[in-house]
Amino acid sequence: MEFSFTSEAWPIAGTFTISRGAKTEALVVTATVSHEGCSGRGECVPYARYGETVESVLGALRSATAHIMSPHDHHKLPALLPAGAARNALDCALWDLRAKLSGTRVWDLIGMAAPEPATTAFTLSLAPPDEMFAKAKANSDRPLLKLKLAGDGDLDRVWAVREGSPDAAIIVDANEGWRREHYHALVPELQRLGVAAIEQPLPTDDDDMLASLDRPIPVIADESCHTADDIPRLSALYHGVNIKLDKSGGLTEALKVREAAMNAGLQIMVGCMVGTSLAMAPAMLLTAGATFVDLDGPLLLARDRAPGLEFSGSVIGIPSAALWG
């Protein structure tokens, strides 16, 4: 077993802005695991919100490799790496390697149906209302838009997007940027505007506050949901969960999160950080039965890997074996 880990910077088309800040490039770490003439790859996005940096992820990956002796060693990863970006890259690389070694697809190895094309949300960065209107109008053919919000001034932003794209379904995502007063003021207006879901409105430490709030619009946990162990607590507070491989620590745990959430009657959103098609491809295995798919990372980049996922408008095709799995 041979391992290599590289960091890469992929330019974003413009600037990607959320309530916590803005960036112009996606910094990713790619893990490559080779064995018996085959190589598997996995990509992760270190996320400062969870105390991750490119350097910390690279260091964690290098430390873990001494304990990985077989392409089947997924079961060792939780003891070696916490749920997060580093475990995700290595877990997905091992799955890809197993698929390459066996000459079959990952979903066959897992024993699940092949993924089908899925319609993804398209994200509009946090911006003044006139800019969000223009972006919504330019993407008015997309059936699902996700709006990054921050609290003050959000109603004007949503109105602007609704005017620019009157037929799209809308998800709003505050990335923990609201407080109770924002929620009370905004939710009735968002309901009148036909907003389909609200993603992580409050800080994770304020999750329990949701129990005392009216929730006429489905509320989806993002930053609050990482592993399957989170589901029992969240099921009493949220209508759904956003499953991201970079939070769960890879496909292996993400499948467990999906099963636990579905058993709890929660809606499923399949989400991503801003990364390339290599990061999105494993997440396609989670999309069956999902209420929302948000795997638009490559659409937000100035360029993508080749080969990458094929997009027809907002519809994502099945990942090729040459890309992953």
Notes on the protein architecture:
Residues 129-220 form the Mandelate racemase/muconate lactonizing enzyme C-terminal domain. The protein is α/β, with parallel strands linked by helices and 325 residues long. The protein has two domains: 2-110, 2-Layer Sandwich (Enolase-like, domain 1); 118-316, Enolase-like C-terminal domain (TIM Barrel), CATH 3.20.20. Helix content is 30%, strand content 23%. The protein has helices spanning 54-64, 77-80, 85-102, 106-110, 129-138, 154-164, 180-192, 231-234, 245-248, 251-263, 277-280; strands spanning 2-18, 21-35, 38-44, 118-119, 122-124, 144-148, 169-173, 197-199, 219-221, 240-243, 267-270, 292-293, 311-312, 315-316. It has an eight-stranded parallel β-sheet. Strand 5, helix 5 and strand 6 form a beta-alpha-beta unit. Helix 1 (54-64) crosses helix 3 and helix 5 runs parallel beside helix 6. It is globular and about 60 Å long. It starts with a strand and ends in a 9-residue tail after the last strand. The mean pLDDT is 97.
